[in-house]
Design goal:
The protein is an all-alpha fold and about 120 residues long. It is built from four helices and no strands.
């Protein structure tokens, strides 16, 4: 199976390998391996939901295409989110710089006013 197709559940669970999950859904595992996967799925609600969703696909040969499409969509959305975050970060910096300049000017102005005040001596 194409390695990129296995990214759908990357880092979601260290106990279930994505290839093993796909093999489980395809019925390629032994009875003992099936039992192990089912036990792990019972312990992890997210993985169980993912497995149920993938198992509900009626056209099993297209399962790989669906997984590939989901991964592509996820990558696209993550890239968009990352780009928005970068844009937001760039917009935040001018405000910080302006605030620093204003504070420095106020400090300099206060120092200047204190220097110009007549001393009480």
């Amino acid at each position: 199976m194409n390695k990129d197709l296995l990214n759908i559940l990357t880092n979601s669970n260290k106990d279930i390998d994505n290839q093993r999950l796909m093999d489980y859904l395809a019925g390629k595992l032994t009875e003992q391996e099936n039992n192990e996967i089912e036990q792990l799925l019972a312990e992890n609600e997210f993985m169980n939901d993912a497995a149920e969703g993938l198992a509900a696909v009626k056209n099993k040969p297209q399962l790989n295409n669906l997984v590939e499409q989901i991964n592509a969509d996820l990558r696209k959305k993550l890239d968009q989110k990352k780009q928005r975050k970068e844009k937001r970060r760039l917009k935040e910096y001018p405000v910080v710089y302006i605030a620093i300049i204003v504070v420095l000017l106020l400090i300099i102005l206060a120092w200047w006013v204190l220097q110009k005040l007549p001393s009480g001596h």
